[in-house]
Fold this protein.
Amino acid sequence: MNNKEKLRKAGLRPTKQRMIIADILLDGINRHFTAENLQNEINSSGNSMSIATIYNCLKKFRNCGLIKQVESSKDTAIFDTNINQHHHFLDEETGELIDIENDEVNLHKLPKIPQGYLNNGVEVLIKIKKQI
Amino acid sequence: MNNKEKLRKAGLRPTKQRMIIADILLDGINRHFTAENLQNEINSSGNSMSIATIYNCLKKFRNCGLIKQVESSKDTAIFDTNINQHHHFLDEETGELIDIENDEVNLHKLPKIPQGYLNNGVEVLIKIKKQI
DNA sequence: TTTTTACTTTAAAATCGTTCTAAACTACTT
DNA sequence: AAGTAGTTTAGAACGATTTTAAAGTAAAAA
């Protein structure tokens, strides 16, 4: 399925701008990035786009499940092209994130989900720091 | 150990402002809060403090391990008085966090920590959503 | 003590990521 | 081809946090 079809399937109009971003993000390679990182990639691909459009697009893509947003206390939002359930190592010094595949973690025992709620995904974060 | 001693032990001068905050936060009750929440508590305790001081203090307290900062992609930083390793339920709609005690989760299998790094804490986040 | 020194607090300004505004534009439908 | 609903844009606005630099305070030295 090409990117135009992916956008349509997600209920998004395949505009020129969304196609440029889809071509960068939906290439099957897993990566973590910020809005600013993406703008740089757009610029170096010879295109340009308003930062407002980039934010709009990232929000739409995330809400449609084309990308994920990482839970992180950094001051900039971090997105992830890996939409499968998976986990992360986090170097708190540098903010670097490293993917952990879902099958590398085994949760043996999980608490009972609070009354009236459904489980909507489990994320394991392993904080790491450089050995001295 | 009283709060003055706790501050000194953490290497922090027990100033008037830090004592006011310590008296609110270090009462042994686990809670999640933002800088603004804390300012409201300070105000309703009959004190007042510059927001810059509150941020300074929270950063110091966090760096000393007196409180923790929660990994969260909300736009406001969320702090936690529970400094033991523990986990959270997160309602992504509302941002509400609910503590999960460490012994309620059992990690059966963990990935190998990357070369040159040390494990610095594991956090499990269970995203939940309201049942319709 | 008093003096000195380093650290802390403060209000206000600045910064930075993100969102809003409203006008121009464009994809899709009729 | 015309209509309409959704999209993009630059720039303004916003809100959380940090910086500034001057005044204040705790602890150390004399």
About this structure: Chain B touches chain A at residues 69-73, 77-78, 87, 89-92, 98, 100, 104-111, 113-114, 116-131 (CB under 8 Å). The longest strand of chain B covers residues 117-130. The longest helix of chain B spans residues 51-63.
